[in-house]
Design a protein that fits this description.
- The protein is mostly helical and 211 residues long.
- The chain is built from 6 helices and no strands.
- The protein has a domain of 110 residues.
- Helix 3 crosses helix 5 and helix 5 packs across helix 6.
- The longest helix is centred in the C-terminal third of the chain and has 35 residues.
- It is elongated and about 75 Å long.
Length: 211
């Protein structure tokens, strides 16, 4: 798997819906921001998986206590990079992404760049925790497609180098990626098999004699 997300103390859904805290990292989110986050989270994972404000506040407080000397957490930066990769995936015309998956990515991207946010990027340490949560909610449906797309980009670059062309000018789509991937697997299997064999004839090499 190409995508690895660092661990964060992300909140679980609260089936009771009873949130005891409304302060997140010293901020009180307005109702529009709360409703927008909840709508996107519900669309990505279903209403039963929507993290409640109480859990988000607890996670933010834990992160602030542990990493008060940081400007932004590595786990949040990693999810930001993951979101950039997802946006490339959604905008890649050669990949022919399923429209339902493209819509899921667009939901997160629109939220992350919008003005109505629970924890804007400017908030010290935990800024971006809100869309980090959304990335985590979305990844079970997107991880296989993103892994495949990153492998597609790798093989497209290799093919472009072999042909002396620019990757984005190369006629290389999902079908060509599958063909190149199968060829690569066959080559690896051949190399592995030859590693178990000898190139010498069955009679073996002649013995050296010292006179």
């Amino acid at each position: 798997m190409y995508v690895h997300l660092d661990s964060l103390p992300l909140p679980a859904a609260d089936p009771s819906g009873r949130a005891r805290r409304n302060h997140i990292a010293g901020r009180v989110p307005d109702q529009r921001s709360i409703e927008r986050f909840q709508r996107v989270a519900s669309a990505l994972a279903g209403p039963e998986q929507v993290p409640q404000l109480d859990g988000i506040a607890s996670a933010a407080r834990q992160l602030l206590d542990q990493h008060a000397d940081r400007t932004r957490l590595a786990g949040i930066r990693q999810r930001a990079r993951c979101l950039r990769a997802l946006r490339m995936l959604a905008s890649e015309p050669a990949w022919q992404l399923d429209p339902e998956l493209r819509e899921r990515i667009q939901l997160i991207a629109d939220y992350a760049t919008g003005s109505e946010r629970l924890l804007p990027d400017a908030v010290p340490v935990v800024g971006g925790l809100d869309y980090a949560l959304l990335v985590d909610l979305a990844m079970p449906r997107l991880i296989d497609e993103l892994d495949a797309y990153l492998d597609f980009r790798r093989l497209r670059i290799e093919e472009a180098i072999l042909r002396g062309e620019r990757p984005h000018e190369l006629a290389f789509g999902r079908d060509e990626w599958l063909e190149a991937r199968q060829a690569e697997l066959r080559l690896l299997a051949h190399i592995l098999e030859r590693g178990r064999q000898t190139y010498l004839e069955e009679t073996g090499a002649p013995r050296f004699q010292v006179h």
